[in-house]
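Below is how a single chain appears once it has passed through the pipeline. First comes the sequence as given, then the structure the pipeline wrote out for it. We keep one example in the README because the format questions we get most often are answered faster by looking than by reading.
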Amino acid sequence: MQKSSLQIFFFSGLLFISFFLSCDNTLKPIDTDFGIYAVYGALDLNKETNFIRVRDLNQPFTEDATREIDAEVTLENLESGFSEVFQDRREFFQGVYQHNFEVEQIIEPNTEYRLTVTRSDGASVVLNTNTPSKPEPLAEPLNQDCYTPIDITFDPVYSGSIVFFIEYVAAELPPPVRQGRYIIQNEDNPGGALVYTFTPVDIMKLTPQTGGKYRCTDLLVPEFNIVYRHFSEGFYEKFVEGRFNVLESTQRFGSFYADTLTIPIDDSRVCPPDCLTKQPKKEDNE
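Resulting structure:
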């Protein structure tokens, strides 16, 4: 398998067990006190294939010692009871062998999964993740002017975080202009609607290198794109930018998906809401 085929999105991510790990060869080679395996993986709900990397913490971190791994990796859907044992896709990377277990089952939203890594003597590491719900986002109103607030609604949302940028194409600036990151969570009403409200003119005023003077008339394309990722609980850190490479990333086990919501805007020149109140009074000629 080509190394590039192991790359997946998420803000893209991974799991370390019991203590902080680094991805380079300075990883502590022996760890009998803190764990059995280091497990790194992100289950992307939009992909048919995901990868979970496993390291044996009780073997030296060298080429010879990492050639083989004593590990059986199983993922169980706790809602349906479906369980699968994965094949090891071994890769030689930065002087050692990485063991990447290929997940080829569809990951369901709002579902608890259990990952189990078991050694031949029965010792194991067990990790759970509750996948995010996958609601169809709704933006309203559409095709309104620069001064009309827009509500973006995700319904339902349980645990986890929705992390997003607002992107647009503006005159005389490299596309796209990106504002954010914005993070919203549904801590007070799990299972209910999660709503974020923004006003286009406030976003345009933040456009860099413009001194706060840009308005919707400066859009080259009359729309905003909400580029978002929805993460399982506690899993959004270090995922928002760039790609996730299972061979290099060192984070922790969890789940997410990525999507984009496009919101059309009326970019006609309009008078701001307070402009009428600022008009000079006409003299009474009668």
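Residues 1-34 have pLDDT under 50 and may be disordered.

See the next section for the split statistics.
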